[in-house]
TrEMBL record:
<dbReference type="InterPro" id="IPR037473">
    <property type="entry name" value="Lcp-like"/>
</dbReference>
<dbReference type="Pfam" id="PF09995">
    <property type="entry name" value="MPAB_Lcp_cat"/>
</dbReference>
<feature type="compositionally biased region" description="Basic and acidic residues">
    <location>
        <begin position="80"/>
        <end position="89"/>
    </location>
</feature>
<feature type="compositionally biased region" description="Polar residues">
    <location>
        <begin position="64"/>
        <end position="73"/>
    </location>
</feature>
<dbReference type="InterPro" id="IPR018713">
    <property type="entry name" value="MPAB/Lcp_cat_dom"/>
</dbReference>
<feature type="transmembrane region" description="Helical">
    <location>
        <begin position="453"/>
        <end position="476"/>
    </location>
</feature>
<keyword id="KW-0472">Membrane</keyword>
<protein>
    <recommendedName>
        <fullName>ER-bound oxygenase mpaB/mpaB'/Rubber oxygenase catalytic domain-containing protein</fullName>
    </recommendedName>
</protein>
<keyword id="KW-1133">Transmembrane helix</keyword>
<feature type="transmembrane region" description="Helical">
    <location>
        <begin position="363"/>
        <end position="383"/>
    </location>
</feature>
<dbReference type="GO" id="GO:0016491">
    <property type="term" value="F:oxidoreductase activity"/>
</dbReference>
<keyword id="KW-0812">Transmembrane</keyword>
<feature type="region of interest" description="Disordered">
    <location>
        <begin position="55"/>
        <end position="89"/>
    </location>
</feature>
<feature type="domain" description="ER-bound oxygenase mpaB/mpaB'/Rubber oxygenase catalytic">
    <location>
        <begin position="135"/>
        <end position="361"/>
    </location>
</feature>
Length: 486
């Protein structure tokens, strides 16, 4: 939770944005310095997408547009989309790039670029960075879902692109979250998975092409109907600044916002390693990597974006609340809407949460979130302090997370996404406020766990306080007895 520090010494460079206080440094970008990044993007990736579309044209048929009304008319849910995708062979742009790289100089340039390991990559460091994610797994997922993603909906420019894909209506947002999580899990599954030829490496290239496809589609629609999307106002869709923000939310936001607000503080080496991991992933997806050269630079760009880019709009409210609706009473967490909102408010603070239109839960759910933080702190600090336990936990969570998100019937049902262009922008595709997902379960698994953690913590504090009081009383009486004898 965002607690103000009464002892913080403010200077002329002190800034406070959305409950977070920091100091401006030369590494922070001014709005004028950041502006060109809104109009630059991954040119090479887009050029290669055009070439691959000629080699293997994309299918003309597309899935329903996935806004609330279209989904209701078609009766298509997020899970059904996964089943439908199995019936039709999917284009794999990564395979197309690999197999055709020698046939075209642009393709060859991109293929050689992604397969050339930057000199700053240290594989041992990358491996340690992967371990960091699982060492703090539960807290990391909580931060990514409710702060990086939901809180990120406060970025006015970014949501204009997301809303036009239709992929954040309640009926499909949950599956889209799982697809994004699949990419993270593939990138952290093993060291070989992120090296050239690995599954995380391949998925990163697919994500790069997906971003290019969305950008192309929106710009083409805007060229035909200028009122559809304003490049002058919002910048090029999925531009360099947006890519930097994405890598930042997966790395810097977790380290300096999400984890501390859950009572978890990483060690310095863990911070360096985790930033290095995401710098390399950023390199693969076509993101400028200079802003992640050091933890200091990564922290500065996070704060720059927090200061200059977060300005919630009505569209922000719609997408943020749709995320809550898509996860309400759904496996594997089975959390109620009030629990989800309390988690989001705990991580994002009241000011931003109010601007995102999130309701205010009662005290009970605040206590449950406190119990969740106590649970995460106990598990994370205990296991990381014992090397043997730390190794076992990381190994186990690698398997458990992948089984739940990708293989289980509650996740992607065993079908790994190829990050194909499913959520296709159309003139009629603007995400609207939706209803809660259907077939919501009523089992309150995560809430019971958090309540138990809170009760145990309060009981422990109570017992320790009682013991301390008894010891202090006994010591005081002993001192009095000695004084009486003398």
């Amino acid at each position: 939770m965002a607690w103000p520090n009464p002892f913080y010494r403010r200077t002329e460079n002190t800034r406070t944005c959305w409950g977070y206080t920091f100091e401006l440094t030369p590494d922070h970008l001014t709005p004028e310095e950041a502006h060109p990044l809104k109009h630059s993007y991954d040119f090479l990736g887009e050029e290669c997408l055009e070439i691959l579309n000629q080699v293997s044209p994309p299918p003309r048929s597309a899935l329903p547009r996935n806004n609330s009304q279209a989904s209701q008319r078609s009766g298509t849910s997020g899970s059904e989309e996964g089943k439908n995708s199995e019936k039709e062979p999917q284009r794999d742009l990564y395979i197309l790039l690999r197999d055709n790289a020698s046939q075209n100089p642009k393709l060859d340039k991109l293929w050689k670029e992604v397969n050339t390991i930057p000199e700053w990559v240290d594989w041992e460091q990358i491996s340690r960075g992967q371990d960091v994610f699982y060492r703090y797994g539960g807290a990391a997922f909580t931060g990514l879902a409710y702060q990086s993603l939901l809180g990120g909906m406060g970025a006015a420019r970014v949501v204009e692109t997301l809303a036009r894909t239709g992929g954040f209506s309640p009926k499909v947002a949950r599956r889209r979250l799982f697809e994004t999580t699949q990419h993270i899990l593939q990138c952290t599954r093993s060291l070989d998975s992120i090296k050239p030829g690995g599954e995380g490496f391949a998925s990163s290239i697919r994500v790069r092409f997906l971003h290019a496809a969305v950008r192309q589609r929106i710009l083409r629609l805007a060229a035909q109907r200028p009122d559809y999307y304003s490049v002058e106002k919002w910048g090029v869709p999925i531009n360099d600044l947006d890519s930097i923000a994405t890598i930042g939310t997966f790395s810097a936001t977790l380290i300096w916002l999400s984890f501390p607000r859950q009572g978890i503080f990483l060690r310095e080496q863990e911070i360096v390693d985790y930033i290095a991991l995401w710098r390399y992933i950023g390199y693969l997806v076509g993101c400028p990597t200079g802003y992640f050269e050091t933890p200091q630079k990564a922290k500065a760009i996070m704060e720059t974006l927090l200061m200059n880019e977060i300005e919630p709009t009505e569209t922000s409210k719609i997408l943020a609340n749709n995320i809550i609706k898509s996860l309400e009473d759904q496996p594997p967490a089975y959390a109620s809407a009030d629990m989800l909102v309390a988690s989001a408010r705990w991580l994002n603070g009241s000011e931003l949460s109010d601007r995102l239109g999130l309701p205010r839960p009662n005290l009970y759910y605040w206590l449950l979130v406190a119990g969740q933080c106590i649970f995460f702190m106990t598990i994370c600090y205990t296991y990381r302090s014992v090397h043997y336990l730390d190794v076992r936990k990381i190994s186990a969570l690698r398997k458990i997370f992948y089984a739940i998100i990708v293989e289980s019937k509650y996740g992607l049902e065993g079908t790994e996404t190829l990050f194909d262009f499913k959520y296709i922008p159309e003139y009629s595709t603007i995400t609207e406020m939706g209803e809660s997902a259907q077939d919501a379960a009523r089992y309150k698994g995560i809430e019971r766990r958090n309540l138990k953690a809170l009760v145990i913590a309060l009981g422990t504090v109570g017992v320790m306080s009682w013991c301390s009081l008894k010891m202090a009383t006994g010591l005081f009486r002993a001192v009095l007895a000695v004084s009486a004898r003398t």
